[in-house]
What we know:
The chain is mainly alpha-helical. The chain has helices spanning 2-6, 15-23, 31-47, 75-88, 94-105, 120-146, 150-163, 168-180, 184-202, 208-218, and strands spanning 12-14, 58-61, 64-67. The protein contains ten helices and three strands; from the N terminus they run αβααββααααααα. A three-stranded antiparallel beta sheet has the order 1-3-2. Strand 2 (58-61) and strand 3 form a beta hairpin. The longest helix is centred in the middle third of the chain and has 27 residues, at 120-146.
Amino acid sequence: MLATLALRAGRAVSHMELVDELWCGSPLGNPRNALQAQATRVRKVLEAHTPMHRTTVLRAVPNGYLLDVAAECVDANRFLDLASRGGAALTTDPERAARLLETGLRLWRGPALFDAGEGLRCASAATLFEERRLTAWEDLVSARLVLGSNTQVIAELQQLVAQNPLHERFCELLMLALYRSGRQSEALERFRLTRKRLDEQLGIQPGAGLQRRHAEILAQDPGLAQPGALAPVRRVTTGV
């Protein structure tokens, strides 16, 4: 219940929405009473951490409940804001981008919305946050590479690749960091292993970005030393 309300901090969530999220369509004899019992438990926890001068954080409103806090009080919202600003600063101010992204990623303590139930809203939000976390890591590593920290980020990228073996962008960045550190053979071997894994697990070939990086490393392309080498390949969508 708290997670559902926090996702819409400062805005009312209807009884119907909360019942659907908390019990996922399971029949309830008296859903209003069930919600009130949940709200009472949540309120006790919140009030134990609320300053004495502060009014109740969880409020009942007509036909629903509201978590009466500003959106920026929710760590998920702070993360999304920091990740967005960090990504936007990547090409113009990589040092600032790295600071913002590091601050955002430090907010994480485990899987997004862990143990928040199987409701559609929390599950969808968790997927969004996890995708944005991966993008934030991509941007942070890119910023560090722009700043010349090639050797230092290799261990970090190796861990990210191990945790996300089918995430091609991490592999691409690791190949670049290895190549820039004079480890061309390791970069090529990383491509081979990733291509094998993609084929065995998904039945697909590496995407355009990864294949381009492989070709550039084989050719020892001078452009790999330039900041532009960090730009991901964007898929162009054309109208019919």
